[in-house]
Design brief:
This protein has 237 residues and is mainly alpha-helical. It has 2 domains: 67 residues, GPCR, family 2, extracellular hormone receptor domain (Hormone receptor fold, Irregular); 128 residues, Up-down Bundle (Rhopdopsin 7-helix transmembrane proteins), CATH 1.20.1070.10. 58% of the residues lie in helices and 9% in strands. It has 7 helices and 8 strands. It has a two-stranded antiparallel ribbon. Strands 2-3 form a two-stranded antiparallel sheet. α3 runs antiparallel to α4, α4 packs antiparallel against α6 and α4 runs parallel beside α7. The N terminus is likely disordered.
Length: 237
């Protein structure tokens, strides 16, 4: 009879109720962590980030460190490492916490193999860019030194090579930028990223210019002399 008086809850409602109670309990624990801290002046209020890490009340302009989560998305992490988040001058937290130091605990050979393959892929990526950049620089110098071959076709080749050199150079520049700087979305970092994307786009425009020249040379064999260099420069850059 007592059971008949209870409201009938669907499984989804039960799940939502359980999740809500857990979330509210975590919020209360986070607020309790900040209760014993006496801070004067503007602060960032205690909050939870996207993976439920508690960030206590903190004076503006400071960077707070917290232990890495013990368990997340089915993976155990080393809790002796730390995660960082900055309290900005306007009294708000940085949008993204820095979890770059949090390392998963390798518990089986499969995870070790995946980590090894990832490191090998990174090495191949950097080595490939390095070899490509060296070959492109040699080709660029040859085009610059051999003035006798400076026709419109080779000028297009030369500019295409230049775009690949600039893109590869900006790729290495981006790799030198600190992870926290990228996450902070600094204006100068956005400028560097924009320049890299611009050179990446010019690769395709100069390849398009190559295609236009070849199409003209094949379809209208005797019309290539009418093509103008400035048209391709405007198209490519």
């Amino acid at each position: 009879r007592l059971l008949s008086t209870l409201p009938c809850l669907l499984p989804s409602q039960l799940l939502w109720t359980s999740a809500s109670s857990i979330s509210s309990q975590v919020d209360e624990d986070c607020e309790f962590l900040s209760d014993g801290i006496n801070i004067t002046g503007p602060v960032c209020n205690s909050t939870l980030d996207e993976i439920e890490t508690c960030w206590p009340s903190t004076p503006v302009g400071q960077v707070v460190s917290r232990p890495c989560p013990e368990f997340f998305n089915g993976v155990r992490y080393e809790i002796h490492r730390t995660v960082y988040r900055e309290c900005l001058e306007n009294g708000t937290w940085a949008l993204i916490s820095n979890y770059s130091e949090c390392k998963p605990i390798v518990e089986n050979k499969e995870v070790q193999t995946e980590s090894f393959h990832y490191e090998v892929a990174l090495i191949i990526n950097y080595l490939g860019h390095c070899i490509s950049l060296a070959a492109l620089v040699i080709a660029f110098l040859l085009f610059m030194g051999l003035r006798s071959i400076r026709c419109l076709r080779n000028i297009i080749h030369w500019n295409l090579i230049s775009t690949f050199i600039l893109r590869n150079s900006m790729f290495y520049t981006l790799q030198l930028i600190d992870f926290r700087t990228q996450e902070a979305n600094e204006p100068w970092c956005r400028v560097v990223s924009t320049i890299y994307n611009y050179f990446h786009v010019t690769n395709f425009f100069w390849m398009f210019g190559e295609g236009c020249y070849l199409h003209t040379a094949i379809v209208m064999t005797y019309s290539t002399d009418k093509l103008r260099k400035w048209v391709f420069l405007c198209l490519g850059w």
